[in-house]
Amino acid sequence: MREGSLEAPTRLPLDWENPDFYDEAKLDAEMRRIFDICHGCRRCFNLCDSFPRLFDLVDESANGELDTVDSKDFKKVVDACTLCDMCFLTKCPYVPPHEFNLDFPHLLLRYRAVEAKKNGVGAADRALTETDRNGKWATLISGAVNWATRRGSPMRGLEEKVAGIDPNAELPKYASQTLEARAKANPPARDEAAPAKARKVALYATCYGDYNDTSIGVAALAVLAKNGVETKVVYPGCCGMPKLEQGLLDEVADGARKVAAALAPYIDEGYDIVAPVPSCALMLKFEWPLILPNDASVKRLADATFDLSEYVVDIAKKEGLAEGMAPVEGGVAFHMSCHSRAQNFGQKGAELLRLIPQADVAVVERCSGHGGAWGYKKGNFETAMKVGKPAMRQLDTAGKKHVVSECPLAGIHIEQGIETLAGDKPKPERVSHPIVLMARAYGVASE
Ligand code: SF4
Ligand code: SF4
């Protein structure tokens, strides 16, 4: 729920195909209009590092007002934004339908789109956006890649120099076999003992779920099969969130059209599309229709897509879950990720965990600070740790045996933060997603 407004926020389509969108003078005028409202409001002062940077620029300017801030300094504000959407969704009373029509994250996204069109994206940032290309080769040589990218590896100096990756940032590992290959080798079989459901699920693997951490997809397939749901793994390509972060809107649109076309036959056959990573669910459900508002297949895909936690909780509410779960001992500290919150469906991950018998769940709803690949970058990692510290501290002091976020990258970042905060004290075990604990409760997990 947002502060100070009773109306639900309405996000307007991104006008990126209009030449005015890339007009620098018009962009500057719009930034000054919005930044001036923010300067007078300041509700978002502690959400991230973008707002403190903006308010410092104003406070340290010649007359303490925005008109004496140099436009070239706006980049500092833009650079600190992780597109978490929390200012738009949880704080701002001036978002549409309010007449101020204020969408801070999309304003900063426009700035990045203008920069990308004018100057291109640097080679290192560009390489990080190519998640499918990277994932395909990295899974083939995952042992070597994981060795080279672990903290303390002698290769991290080179990665810092060439790719601008902070040597202290914990990076995601690669799997030796993709989720698609695992599912092909071991096709998910519906539990014959469970009453057959009318539901069929096409699990949209996501780049992270396909190439990096397959335990989430494996657990999802096992839980759905246990509950009588027919499942398939599908993965026509990345949702494009890393490209969105770089302002590459035309490439995000191309990816959206391609994935929507590939998933259309599944929707025709009655499959629900389920995405296990909240950022990817957010892209399919909300961002793609704002980028391609007149594309019928993108709209149809958005309507057919569910976040994984949302979907399992929906089964529980409408049809009930299969029996047979045992308690998971030790309790869970659950981090509600920003892109779960941005889907505006309540605390679905916590609801899922509370379906496990005797669940002891502590919920923390604060940004982890990681911001995807943004948080690995040199110059951002320290900020990412600083922004995430309150969430990390609360998750640590909850004193549970497990810590979990629906956002797997937030989970890795939180684990690293807790490691630093907790020192020699015992630390909670990081679990990749709440569904993994549910699979353990059913005794069907094979991680
Ligand atoms: S989207 Fe998130 S990171 Fe960006 S300005 Fe808003 S709160 Fe800050
Ligand atoms: S984004 Fe909205 S709530 Fe946040 S500082 Fe600006 S005007 Fe205030």
UniProtKB/TrEMBL annotation:
Which InterPro entries does the entry mention?
Cys_rich_dom (IPR004017)
Keywords assigned: 4Fe-4S, Iron, Iron-sulfur, Metal-binding, Repeat
Is Iron-sulfur set as a keyword in this record? yes
Where the record annotates domain Cysteine-rich, the positions are 201-285, 332-409
Instruction: Kindly name one Pfam family recorded for this protein.
Output: CCG
Query: What is this protein's record name?
Result: Ferredoxin
Taxonomic lineage of the native organism = Bacteria, Pseudomonadati, Pseudomonadota, Alphaproteobacteria, Hyphomicrobiales
